[in-house]
Design brief:
The protein is mostly helical. It has two domains: about 10-80, no CATH class; about 100-165, no CATH class. Helices cover about 65% and strands about 0% of the residues. The chain has seven helices and no strands. The chain has helices at about 10-25, 35-50, 60-75, 85-95, 115-130, 130-140, 150-170. Helix 1 (about 10-25) packs across helix 2 (about 35-50), helix 1 crosses helix 3 and helix 2 packs across helix 3 (about 60-75).
Length: about 170
C-alpha cells in the first residue's frame, strides 16, 4: 500500500471509509447490503492507492475510482430473475458464459443399447470428417470445457454441415 506523502495511514483509512460510506447506499442490490458494499468498496479503495497520483486530491481520486469499480461490481454480480423479458435476457447472458456440453443434446440419451450405438456412430462420423484445425476445440466442447464463442459456433456449424451431408448421402 502506497501512502500519500502528506498523510498518515489513519488519515488515509479514514478518507477511504468516508468515501465508501457516501457511495455504499447507492450500490446496494440483490443480497448485497450496505455493509457488504462498504467492505467491497474499502478493499477497492485500498487497492487503488498504488495508482494514486499525488497531484490530485485523494478524496476525489478515491470517489471516482471506487464509484467506477462499484458500477462494474454491480453489473457483474447482478442477475434479476424476474418474469418475462428480463428473465430471458439474463438467461441468455448466463448461457453465453456456460460452455456447451454436447452430452446434453438430445442425441445423448443413453437409455438403451441401440441409441448408444447410434450416438457412437455419430461421434465416429464427426471424428472422421471434422477438419484437424477444429479437432482441439471440438474435444474441449465435448468434454465440457469452455471455448471461445466464435470457435464454438464455428465447430457446431461444421458438425451440422457434416451430419447434414451424411444424412443426404444416406437418404
Amino acid at each position: 500500500m502506497k501512502l500519500p506523502t502528506n498523510m498518515t495511514e489513519a488519515e488515509v483509512v479514514q478518507t477511504i471509509l468516508e468515501v465508501t460510506k457516501r457511495l455504499s447506499s447507492s450500490f446496494t442490490f440483490a443480497y448485497f447490503d450496505k455493509e457488504d458494499i462498504e467492505q467491497e468498496a474499502f478493499l477497492m479503495g485500498m487497492e487503488a492507492l498504488d495508482r494514486y497520483d499525488e497531484a490530485r486530491p485523494l478524496e476525489n481520486f478515491l470517489f471516482i475510482h471506487i464509484k467506477n469499480r462499484l458500477k462494474n461490481f454491480k453489473r457483474d454480480k447482478y442477475y434479476r430473475y424476474d418474469e418475462g423479458k428480463a428473465q430471458k435476457i439474463q438467461q441468455n447472458k448466463k448461457n453465453l458464459l456456460d460452455p456447451l456440453n454436447i452430452d446434453v443434446l438430445p442425441l445423448s440419451y443413453r437409455d438403451n443399447k441401440d441409441e448408444q450405438r447410434d450416438i457412437e456412430e455419430i461421434y465416429n462420423i464427426i471424428d472422421r470428417n471434422l477438419p484437424n484445425t477444429m479437432r482441439n476445440d471440438y474435444l474441449r466442447i465435448k468434454s465440457g470445457v469452455q471455448v471461445n464463442k466464435n470457435k464454438r459456433t464455428e465447430v457446431i456449424e461444421e458438425i451440422q454441415r457434416i451430419l447434414e451431408e451424411v444424412l443426404n448421402e444416406e437418404g
